[in-house]
Specification:
By secondary structure, the protein is of the alpha/beta class. The chain has helices at residues 59-71, 92-98, 101-116, 133-141, 144-150, and strands at residues 7-13, 29-36, 45-51, 75-79, 121-130.
Length: 154
């Protein structure tokens, strides 16, 4: 699977420490992501936002799933919530306080907005998947109150 290329992209996201910070978080920050887009299909493809766990990205997990989705005709966008906010050497207990669930949700919704704007992606068929803490972001994003908070225009 090493021959599958991704595009390094940068998304605009925010740093809300808690959910009540979302509406007041005016400053945007850069979020690195890897975009796996299948060759332009006849019709827009489904897509998946992949969120990593607390231990940062693991090639055998997040990258593997992105590549498998790619091979099966889906676009995949792997977002790295810790890349600009924490070091991989930071102990998990501290990293958990530096990058909150609200920040990971902001990143997931930033990825959703970015994918929605892509011609090769069907905006009605985008999912969020995650591992560990990223799994929590995926579950929380399904709540209508959370979705309205992070994406009131959708």
């Amino acid at each position: 699977m090493d021959d599958i290329a991704f595009h390094a992209v940068s998304l605009a996201t925010q740093n809300p420490v808690v959910l009540t910070d979302v509406k007041n978080a005016a400053k945007t920050v850069s979020l690195p992501a890897h975009f796996y887009a299948p060759p332009r299909p006849a019709a827009p493809a489904p897509a998946v936002v992949i969120c990593h766990g607390l231990g940062c990205a693991v090639a055998a997990r997040e990258t593997r799933y992105a590549r498998l989705l790619y091979q099966n005709g889906c676009a995949a966008l792997f977002v790295d919530s810790f890349a600009r906010r924490s070091s991989p050497r930071t102990p998990n207990a501290i990293r958990r306080r530096v990058v909150t669930d609200s920040m990971m949700l902001a990143d997931a919704f930033a990825a959703l907005r970015w994918l929605t704007a892509r011609d090769e992606v069907d905006p009605n068929r985008i999912a969020i998947a995650g591992f560990g803490e990223g799994g929590m972001a995926a579950i929380l994003s399904a709540y209508s109150q959370i979705a309205y908070l992070f994406a009131p225009d959708c």
